[in-house]
């Protein structure tokens, strides 16, 4: 259904339906990947995204999903621009995004404020039992943004969303 008058708020709300391809419980908005939205006089929509990592294999899928979702809102053109002017950081996750990661049993990244230390990958809090009696098994998880850990307290392996 096409609305009479499209607002930037309408677009942001619709983008909450566009999920991250690797963590489908989170929206691209909650991941902090969507960095800008604008609407032209002809109701064309321009969305700027900053992927979590350069060379992200899900870029085309994210752009296509954004175009599909917003195409239901407007008769105008939908453009998705990938922009690296601002480097994505885990500090860009919304509080809702952090909560969804926790509910998905990911160890949360700490706030980095522009500086990531090696310590941010060791003794992270286990998302299952809350213990910090954990150890890094591999800094390389199934995707570039995740690391594998093991909890010596509850004997559970888990992934950490790496701080960047």
How do the strands and helices of this protein lay out in sequence?
Layout: H1 8-15, H2 28-31, E1 34-39, E2 45-49, H3 59-71, E3 78-82, H4 95-103, E4 106-107, E5 134-138, E6 146-151, E7 157-161
Parallel strand pairs: 2-3, 4-7
Antiparallel strand pairs: 1-2, 5-6, 6-7
What does this structure look like?
The chain is 21% helix and 21% strand. The chain is of the alpha/beta class and 164 residues long. The strands form two sheets. A four-stranded mixed sheet has the order 4-7-6-5.
Concise description?
The chain is an alpha/beta fold and 164 residues long. It has four helices and seven strands.
Write the element-wise H/E pattern from the N-terminal end onward.
Answer: HHEEHEHEEEE
Strand content is 15-25%
How many helices?
A: 4
Residue-averaged pLDDT: 91
Radius of gyration computed on alpha carbons: 18 Å
Please give the number of β-strands: 7
Briefly note the CATH topology name of the largest domain. Answer: GMP Synthetase, Chain A, domain 3
Q: Class by helix and strand content?
A: alpha/beta
The CATH H-level superfamily of the largest domain is Fe-S cluster assembly (FSCA)
The number of domains: 2
């Amino acid at each position: 259904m096409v609305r009479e008058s499209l607002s930037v708020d309408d677009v942001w709300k619709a983008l909450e339906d566009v999920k991250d391809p690797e963590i489908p419980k989170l929206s691209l908005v909650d991941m902090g990947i969507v960095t800008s939205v604008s609407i032209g006089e002809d109701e064309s929509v321009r969305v700027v995204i900053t992927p979590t990592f350069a060379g992200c294999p899900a870029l085309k899928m994210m752009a296509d999903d954004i175009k599909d979702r917003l195409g239901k809102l407007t008769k105008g053109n939908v453009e998705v621009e990938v922009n690296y002017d601002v480097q994505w950081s885990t500090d860009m996750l919304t509080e809702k995004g952090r909560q969804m990661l926790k509910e998905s049993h990911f160890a949360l990244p700490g706030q980095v404020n522009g500086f990531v230390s090696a310590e941010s990958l060791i003794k992270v809090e286990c998302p299952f039992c809350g213990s910090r009696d954990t150890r890094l098994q591999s800094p390389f998880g199934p995707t570039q943004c995740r690391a594998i850990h093991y909890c010596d307290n509850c004997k559970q392996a888990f992934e950490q969303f790496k701080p960047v």
